[in-house]
Amino acid sequence: MHERRSPAELLALDRAHVWHPYSTLVNPPEAFLVQSARGVRLRLADGRELIDGMSSWWSAIHGYSVPELNLALTTQLDDMAHVMFGGLTHEPAIELATKLIAITPPDLEHVFFADSGSVAVEVAIKMAIQYWAARGLPNKQQLLTVRGGYHGDTFGAMSVCDPITGMHGLFQQTLATQRFAPRPESRFDGAWNDTDISELSRVLERHRGNLAAVIIEPIVQGAGGMWFYHPEYLRRLRELCTACDVLLIADEIATGFGRTGELFACQHSDVTPDLLCVGKALTGGYMTLAATLTTPAIADTIGTGVPGVFMHGPTFMANPLACRVALASIELLLASPWQSRVRQIEQILRRNLSRCAAFAHVSDVRTLGAIGVVEMREPVDMRTLPRQFVERGVWVRPFGKLIYLMPPFVIDPADLLQLTDAVVDVVRTLGAGV
Q1: Which of 34, 251, 287, 327 has the greatest CB tally within 10 Å of its CB?
Q2: Choice among 64, 115, 140, 150 that is catalytic
């Protein structure tokens, strides 16, 4: 057994060799060494504890070191950690697929497992294109989406991220050319403006012969801007897609499993998409796993077209450990008072973060479910801001102009108050030099 390195040695090695997401190895930003995580707290190697406001990028809805999820993993490990999914199957995948079909919107009866959210989006795009090819319409290959969206970091997913304000403009010349319409501007908690969907409607009608699908994040645009839009938009979009013979892909990677106050954000509009992508909170933050669900009509059409099979198959697809812990996570969520917990989180976030609206350097404050957002007028300094939160005993990782909270559902009011107080305090200090 190798000798354990000191925290200082580990951090030095990390700084020298480990490439973190959206980061650089040339004078890399500070990283904080986590030693353990339990409940809603991250324990650093130097002994400090941080209340987690990020749910590890929105996935750890039950918090950390959850007994029920730990037991699911260790029990499954006694049987098998992994087995290929080509030509073989296993109980955890079958039970998880059955559970997902039961809790998602109706008519989604087939489940394709993937490695990550980005890959689930890739799968949905490929399914849509292959569906139309099987129907003898191979020109229907483009996607339509709205600006301000984010769907992942792989190439197909990047092509439907916002081409102007998104993170992937550098790759524009190598990405597939897609269609974009203005983002919906009617706020979730505001009045519906009937002209909000007019431009998308025109684009959809004009290019319907080349469009395979519209892809959208239902109700909440996540990493593209944390924008919450009116449920009527999604209802109208579903009607337009049906009328124009274009599929609807709902990307619920960020919103699925209760984050917005409904189990799935589509349910705010009582809409069933043709394809549904889930991930992030699927395993309660324990392991990487995602899934794309679709209808019998799409699955049957792909199966009867050329080449007669769906052309995708990840090596670690339907990993038994991940499927077992995902099933346990869903059962734990459904057995808990998650809706009342999310409502309480929403009330506390709205009441406490609203104090930021009084600051001149704040553009907007908005809350939906267990999501609270403070939008600044200017981008924040990511090299210094995380440390300011760590010094206040919380973990908050802003991006762009957004300082936001998406805590675990199990957080208690006192911890949530400390999180919101830290956000208000840091936002206040950011205005000191304005």
Answers
A1: 251
A2: 150
CATH code linked to domain 69-335: 3.40.640.10
Q: Do domains 32-65+337-430 and 69-335 have the same CATH topology?
A: no
Per-residue pLDDT for the chain (434 aa), expressed as one digit of tens each?
678 899 999 999 999 999 999 999 999 999 999 999 999 999 999 999 999 999 999 999 999 999 999 999 999 999 999 999 999 999 999 999 999 999 999 999 999 999 999 999 999 999 999 999 999 999 999 999 999 999 999 999 999 998 887 777 788 889 999 999 999 999 999 999 999 999 999 999 999 999 999 999 999 999 989 999 999 999 999 999 999 999 999 999 999 999 999 999 999 999 999 999 999 999 999 999 999 999 999 999 999 999 999 999 999 999 999 999 999 999 999 999 999 999 999 999 999 999 999 999 999 999 999 999 999 999 999 999 999 999 999 999 999 999 999 999 999 999 999 999 999 999 999 987 55
* Helix (H/G/I), strand (E/B), else coil: 252: coil
Is residue 131 annotated as a catalytic residue, yes or no?
no
For the record, the structure tokens of 131 come out as 């569906």
Domain ranges for the chain:
32-65+337-430, 69-335
* Active-site residue, from 251, 274, 401, 415: 251
Whether 46 is catalytic is: no
Six token digits for residue 146: 């709205």
| 426 in Cβ contact with 402 (< 8 Å) | no
| Tokens linked to 84 | 């290929």
Q: 32-65+337-430: which CATH architecture?
A: Alpha-Beta Complex (3.90)
Angle formed by the axes of helices 320-335 and 91-103, nearest 10°:
40
Catalytic site includes residue 99: no
- Give the predicted TM-score (pTM) of the model: 0.97
The catalytic position among 52, 131, 233, 280 is 280
For residue 123, give the H/E element and its range.
helix 117-134
